[in-house]
Amino acid sequence: xxxxxxxxxxxxxxxxxxxxxxxxxxxxxxxxxAAAFGYERIDTPTFEDxxxxxxxxxxxxxxxxxETYTFKDRGGDLLSLRPEGTAPVCRSYLQHGMRNxxxxxxxxxxxxxxxxxxxxxxxxxxxxxxxxxIIGDADPAVDAEVIELGWGLLRDLGLSGMALLLNSIGxxxxxxxxxxxxxxYYEARADAIAHDECRRRLKSNPLRLLDCKEASCRALIQxxxxxxxxxxxxxxxxxxELLACLDQxxxxxxxxxxxxxxxxxxxxxxxxxxxxxxxxxxxxxxxxRYDGLIEQIGGSPTPGIGFAAGVERIILNLQEQKIPAPAxxxxxxxxxxxxxxxxxxxxxxxxxxxxxGVPAILAPAGRSLKAQLRYASSVSATHAVIIGERxxxxxxxxxxxxxxxxxxxxxxxxxxxxxxxxxxxxxPQ
Length: 429
Known about the structure:
This protein is an alpha+beta fold. Helix content is 37%, strand content 20%.
């Protein structure tokens, strides 16, 4: 068979049926973790006004400068495919008057993002992210809650060796002093800046110099001034209380004074969770506080904090640590049929089983019983119902347990009741 003339675009991929297990495992665990902390689901549009990301994410960030998929629609509006989730959630918070709800508002999402980036392992141009946002509370305990949610999710998935990196980058009151110290430090060493992009950042956004992943810049970064040493009294108090909360929760962390994150809206707390042996692109969950973002996009000053976790990055680490996706619980039935009358009988039986919540698959017609039972394995059936002329005449059907190679004869009514029972469906009684 010849291959199709068309391929998935570079940086995208098809998630085939046999790869859905890990994806479903991560998404279900993420939804459970969010629900345990009282976060409600929100879904925002796949594309937004391009200006939302310029104002919110930052005009000099890599996402806005190089990575957004931006286009004009037929009405002439400039739109961007969603590159990240926080700005759209904040836009929705403002648009729908969520500030009139009891504060803080806790929201979560699982959705695709789009970034024109260099594809590599765990990094795609279309990617899935699980994110949480808590808007309307500036308390450091809220920062700790968000971190606990993300840390607990990765732990519950079975991942080990994770490292929580933590920093504070101050706020508009104290950050200008830090940025000035950072600019002075780099200007004195301008000849050592080998990367053209970093030379440009020195003029436009010195804080982004600390986020450079180029090896030639790492030595400069290690000796650069620390943001924690330049915090004002309020930011310092917030920082110390956050550390105390994490200590109470017994969540281990490592201070990283060079951690700034790549988006302009962050204030005070920033954090990342990385797997063992992670390189510069290994972060699987990251976030921080964004107390000025809602004001930047047209609202009144409103604190917020959240994180985003890359679903593909998490799956890659599950596979590297050889953590299998749990097998589907419950019964799946193959309806094997021999002859035209048996096929009609199987069609109706399958419909009745599905109405009772039992997955039922009609075996391919015209094959031998042996071939039909082989097909059961390919669709991961747990049981097979064998239907022939004799079974139809007697009113007794053969139910075969494929996992344990045993079978029993049951009336149609008893067979449906047995397959639909909570025990067979993997449900608690």
